[in-house]
Write a structure and sequence with these properties.
The complex is a heterotrimer. Chain A is of the alpha/beta class. Chain A is built from eleven helices and 14 strands. Classes of the chains: A alpha/beta, B alpha/beta, C mainly alpha.
């Protein structure tokens, strides 16, 4: 059963703004990146998945349920982490998460226990007994994640989870999300516009542009190897280029690197031998892979194919 | 060719030292000002733009101070991080207002040029409150460029932009740098900086931690073994042979390949191809795994 | 020494237990609201104001009981009691309603609620309910105290019975006050995201409407206007209702049922607007 499935999903607001247009996709459980949908598209998508908005046309299913008719049930099984600040500064974190757990239907003692556990899993220890107002951005993001996680959802919707975090905090959050998606067995949809993050932790990707589906695919399908080998030496690049040409490889320069066509496995050996013979310091040898960013650098003719990821 | 120079610049607010003894020279091209939140990037930018006086030291553009020098604004354009724009103005009106404020003789021509530079000609007659974030940002860049300044400062210009908007903005900045302008932008998102410019100025807690190309910076950190990831046809065999080399400090075998800590970068990079060939091992991948801006940055922060 | 060594699994545990539905969530929110209103479970600073108010209303009741015990005279009847403390109740609401409602708006916490099974209408009604309950307790609590005090000094069983009936009458009036005051206050608080703003707005609305009513009553002399104008004031509307039901307040002439209707419409109207207001809040 797919995690999220839409069929020609469209949403046009009364003012005439079309946020989603004819979106058809099907997403398997795992960690999914949602990209490119800034502004109306992203929040419309989230609200629709949560059953807080009715589509203008088309269908949507979350965890097999229709959010329009079974909204309550969907919301009981989904956790949402908003992008913006949403925490009351004068409440103690542990109390707040407990309160939120009860709002999702967990009985009193269970709520308290799970809140404590959720805070531990996101990495908040003795800080959880302090008021949220005194927290750093990183800690606040963790509390937001904890309240989304506390009721053991089947799906987490995380909106820009690394917003405002410095590199170390970003790294920690991404590792945590990856853990949740793999070890905890909870599917996660991560909204982000940082493709590096998405490539790092997501299995699949949904790219929306102008309300339309640009691409929906698995990440490894989008990052397949090309038939180009990249070589970088710390010095002597020109020398190496000459030597490689002499051996029948046709190197192309790109910045500090040389790119040669990767005909077969022997190419690796040939390159290595050439470098060794010239006694050059080999800095990098790597088969070029496609990158998710390529999706956005080509002319924007949005693809309307139904994609199964 | 305009140089923006800072010499021994410090700025404090009571006991809080926002910027501590920073000396740097920025020339034509694009430079990234990098640092965690609260490191002093915005303070530095504001001093460069003449909004703040340095508590000590001097900030000059081609020798002229930026503080209390209105003439400097002919050479300087600043795009702030958060700026309320009057939503009821169209893009063109907004840029034209900037042109008028600069007292340009032919405001309309300047406006047209600036808007063309940021590729916003199609949307210029629409109200700014109908723009997306990226579009508004581009219009603000146009307003900052309308007087054709040699120096352009941008505070967190990529904030909140989606990949396509960011790519456009990156291309724009690259283009401006290639034209010979001195462009400085600040960011705390390493991924963005890495793609726009290799040249960085890293600020940590108010101090300038490093300047230059981040890859070269990495190589300057000789006390830290370089880390490489290797995939080969026989990892273990290669690992054993590598350990025999004095340039290698340590080797770890994982399911994805080898991780090598090389104490002597120069010797190791020359030795590896030979060792592999001697052992009859095919090397499929050699990647420096701590050369990324993120690694360099984390090393600088923890230094 | 044959104890087994074990590494306990404290990894993530899935939850397979019971999940109570909307009703439970709404009740929890109601309970939470009531606690916030009286500063329970929060810092000492948050308790100061509500407990001063509780102290004052209780004090009044105690004084009435003491006087009754001394002189046998009930200087303030059960039904009179709410009027006596109505201004205090308004001040209480001016502080507490924003506390309950404006904070969630200001902190933008609502998306966290609405992305859960608790619906928007449930949220609005739970908050309203908590406020109504809080005000009711503030009024009916002292009335009960008066009853207990009087019952002890009553002559006989029928005396106690009379006191009980009196108290119940007082409770009905308290309910009217609670409903009217709370529904108006929480509606005002829900449109203001700053607490000080909301508090001020509540006081202004109450005071200005009373002022207008007072003016019209003075102008109306003895005529119908003097009997109708009180409807405009939240302080006098419940009194009018009281007159209709028990005839113990000012003269409402033939307009008694109208007071009943207006009360109903006001409360229902404010409640609907409140629910509507929360429907419009975007995620």
């Amino acid at each position: 059963m797919s995690l999220i499935a839409t069929q020609s999903l469209s949403k046009t607001y009364p003012g005439g703004v079309t946020a989603l247009a004819d979106l058809t996709l099907s997403v398997e459980p795992g960690v999914i990146g949602l990209v490119g949908a800034n502004g109306a598209g992203k929040s419309t998508m989230i609200k629709t998945l949560l059953g807080l908005l009715t589509p203008t046309s088309g269908q949507v299913r979350v965890l097999g349920l229709d959010p329009v008719t079974a909204g309550e049930e969907v919301r009981a099984r989904v956790g949402y982490m908003p992008e913006h600040d949403c925490l009351p500064p004068d409440m103690i974190a542990a109390e707040f998460v407990t309160h939120m757990a009860r709002m999702t239907g967990l009985p009193r003692t269970v709520a308290r226990e799970r809140a404590s556990e959720a805070l531990r899993h996101v990495g908040l220890y003795e800080e959880r007994y302090r008021q949220i107002g005194g927290y750093s951005t990183g800690m606040k993001q963790r509390v937001k994640l904890a309240q989304a996680l506390v009721h053991d959802p089947d799906l987490l919707l995380l909106d820009e989870p690394t917003n405002g975090l410095d590199p170390a905090g970003r790294d920690a959050m991404l590792t945590l999300i990856h853990r949740i998606g793999t070890e905890f067995g909870i599917s996660v949809v991560v909204c982000s516009h940082l493709l590096g993050e998405i490539e790092r932790i997501c299995d699949s990707l949904i790219a929306i542009e102008g309300g339309r589906l640009l691409r929906a695919d698995r990440i490894d399908a989008m990052t397949t190897g090309t038939d180009v080998l990249a070589i970088e030496v710390a010095e002597g690049t020109a020398e190496l280029a000459e030597a490689l040409s002499a051996r029948g490889l046709t190197p192309r320069e790109e910045g500090r690197m040389l790119l040669v066509p990767l005909a077969d496995e022997d190419t690796y050996d040939l390159v290595l031998r050439t470098v060794a013979e010239l006694d050059l310091p080999l800095h990098r040898l790597d088969q070029r892979r496609h990158r998710v960013a390529e999706l956005f650098s080509t002319a924007p003719l949005p693809s309307l194919e139904a994609s199964h990821v | 060719m305009t140089d923006l120079e800072l010499r021994g610049v410090s700025r404090w607010y009571g006991n809080v030292v926002a910027v501590n003894d920073v000396t740097m020279t920025l020339g034509p091209g694009v430079t990234g000002l990098l640092g965690p939140n609260g490191a002093g990037k915005t303070t530095l930018l504001h001093m460069m733009a003449g909004f703040l006086a340095p508590s000590r030291g001097a900030v000059t553009i081609d020798g002229a101070p930026t503080w209390r020098n209105p003439a400097i604004y002919r050479k300087l354009g600043l795009v702030n991080e958060r700026e309320a724009v009057y939503g009821f103005l169209t893009g063109k009106e907004f840029v034209r207002a900037s042109a008028k404020l600069h007292g340009l003789p032919d405001a309309d021509a300047a406006t047209r040029r600036a808007i063309a530079l940021v590729e916003m000609a199609d949307a210029q007659d629409r109200r700014m409150d109908t723009y997306s974030k990226g579009m508004r940002q581009r219009m603000r860049v146009a307003a900052a460029l309308v007087h054709d300044p040699a120096v352009l400062l941008l505070d967190e210009p990529f904030n909140g932009m989606d990949p396509r908007q960011r790519m456009h903005m990156m291309e724009l900045l690259h283009g401006l740098g290639a034209q010979g302008r001195t462009v400085l932008f600040s960011s705390h998102i390493l991924e963005e900086v890495e793609q726009v410019s290799g040249t960085v100025q890293v600020i940590v807690a108010g101090r300038l931690a490093a300047s230059g190309d981040y890859r070269t910076i990495r190589r300057l950190m000789t006390h830290r073994p370089h880390v490489f990831a290797i995939r080969s046809s026989d990892d273990r065999r290669l690992a054993v042979a590598l350990m025999a080399s004095p340039s290698v400090a340590g080797v770890t075998l994982g399911k994805d390949g080898l991780t090598v800590h090389a104490g002597d970068y120069g010797t190791f990079t020359r030795a590896l191809p030979r060792i592999a060939l001697d052992q009859g091992v095919r090397v499929r991948q050699l990647i420096p795994s701590d050369e990324s801006l993120e690694s360099v940055f984390s090393y600088l922060v923890s230094a | 020494m044959s104890e087994q060594s074990v590494i306990h699994d404290i990894g993530y545990q899935r939850y397979t237990g019971v999940r109570l539905g909307r009703g439970y969530a709404a009740r929890s929110l109601f309970e939470h609201g009531l606690r916030v209103a009286f500063g329970l479970g929060r810092s000492a600073k948050a308790k100061i104001f509500p407990w001063i108010v509780i102290g004052l209303v209780t004090l009044l009741a105690v004084i009435v009981v003491a006087i009754k015990a001394q002189s046998g005279e009930m200087v303030l009847t059960y039904q009179d009691y709410p009027t006596a403390v109505s201004t205090l109740a308004m001040v209480f609401l001016a502080v507490v309603a924003p506390e309950l409602v404006s904070r969630d708006l200001r902190n933008q916490t609502l998306p966290l609620y609405f992305s859960r099974p608790v619906g928007r209408a449930d949220y609005a009604l739970a908050k309203l309910g908590a406020l109504v309950a809080a005000v009711w307790l503030l009024l009916a609590g002292p009335q009960t105290l008066m009853f207990l005090g009087s019952a002890f000094t009553a002559a006989d069983a029928s005396g106690v019975g009379a006191e009980a009936r009196g108290m119940l009458g007082g409770w009905v009036v308290s309910t009217a006050y609670a409903l009217i005051f709370s529904s108006v206050s929480v509606l005002i608080a829900s449109v203001a995201s700053r607490r000080a703003f909301a508090a001020g707005a509540i006081v202004v609305v109450f005071m200005v409407s009373s002022g207008v009513a007072g003016l019209l009553i003075a102008l109306g002399g003895d005529g119908p206007m003097a009997q109708l104008a009180p409807m405009l004031s939240p302080f006098l509307l419940p009194e009018g209702l009281r007159s209709w039901l028990y005839g113990t307040s000012f003269d409402v002439g033939a307009y008694g049922p109208l007071y009943g209707l207006v009360t109903l419409l006001l409360v229902a109207g404010c409640t609907s607007l409140l629910v509507l207001r929360y429907r419009k809040v975007s995620l």
